[in-house]
Specification:
By secondary structure, this protein is α+β, with helices and mostly antiparallel strands. The protein has seven helices and ten strands. It folds into three domains: 105 residues, no CATH class; 46 residues, SH3 type barrels (Roll); 107 residues, 2-Layer Sandwich (Alpha-Beta Plaits), CATH 3.30.70.100. Strands 4-3-2-1-5 form a five-stranded antiparallel β-sheet. It is elongated. About 2% of the residues have low confidence.
Length: 286
């Protein structure tokens, strides 16, 4: 009567103690992993956008590493504890290998999403709040995970892009923005006179205290861009603070229009504005 009870007590004392030790060691490893990944996070030392972006990037990387590490530690602990309950680990490991292979074939896109998302974070290609151009879509990054990127385009639509489909990315929200303004001078007008007037207009614009904070470099007159039957196309360039290119371009076009009207130089062609490679449809010159 007492012999089975004694056997159960011995079984619990030996195998139960081993299982307890395995899980205690696993918990210790998880705690150590948490400390190590927390130290990877670089806290923002200032209020600059770059500092906050660096903190956000390292937090994402640390979270990914911690999640993967916890899964690995838990899997090893379970495999070490199974023999104590009388299970043979070899068939279990073989079944796990077969399942992993089948899962890998069935979830190739998901794996590519995760891998590409990890490298997007690691390489700091873009972050939430940035305006990007990817897969013929341009918009603000509303939400980002390791699996997908959610962008709101200029029409207000939410576009969800799996990270595996993201290839070449143009980030329009880093450091500064740029805009080109083309002015067409009629063929019967003197180009030299128009260039001199444009130099005066951009000089007054640069000296305007109300707009100096929005200007990084320029505006500057680059010169004659092309020749056509309609006239001579003169190109202007200006680098602005982030997301101020539209405001600066509108004000620059307004001043050009007023300056040409005062000098009685007609403008027959609409203006064309390019934002970092993205062409804006021409607007009427009037």
């Amino acid at each position: 009567m007492h012999e089975p009870l004694t056997q159960w007590i011995d079984l619990l004392w030996t195998r139960g103690l081993r299982v307890l030790i395995i899980f205690i060691v696993a918990i210790i490893f998880i705690r150590v992993l948490k400390v190590l990944t927390t130290r990877l996070v670089k806290r923002a030392k200032g209020q600059t956008r770059v500092a906050h972006m660096r903190e956000q990037q390292t937090q994402t990387v640390a979270g990914v590493l911690y999640s993967l590490g916890v899964l690995l530690i838990a899997a090893v602990a379970i495999l070490m504890a199974l023999p104590e309950f009388g299970f043979n680990v070899t068939p279990v490991a073989a079944a796990a290998a077969v399942f992993s292979l089948a899962f890998g074939f069935g979830a190739q896109n998901l794996v590519r999403d995760l891998i590409n998302g990890f490298f997007i974070v690691l390489e700091d290609q873009y972050a939430v709040g940035d305006v990007i151009q990817v897969n013929n879509e341009t918009g603000r990054v509303e939400y980002f995970t390791i699996r997908r990127t959610v962008v709101r385009n200029p029409h207000g639509a939410i576009v969800t892009i799996p990270n595996s489909l993201i290839g070449q990315v143009s980030n329009l929200s880093r450091d500064w923005s740029q805009v080109f303004v083309d002015v067409t001078v009629p063929s019967d007008e003197l180009v030299g006179r128009a260039l001199t007037l444009l130099e005066k207009i951009v000089g007054d614009f640069r000296a305007d205290a109300q707009w100096s904070a929005a200007l990084v470099d320029g505006p500057r007159v680059l010169g004659v861009e092309s020749l056509s039957l309609d006239g001579t196309v003169v190109r202007l360039q200006v680098k602005t603070a982030l997301n101020r290119q539209d405001d600066v371009a509108r004000e620059l076009r307004r001043r050009i229009k007023l300056g040409f009207e005062e000098s009685r130089i007609p403008l027959r062609q609409a203006h064309k504005v390019e934002l970092q490679g993205q062409v804006i449809p021409p607007a009427a010159a009037s």
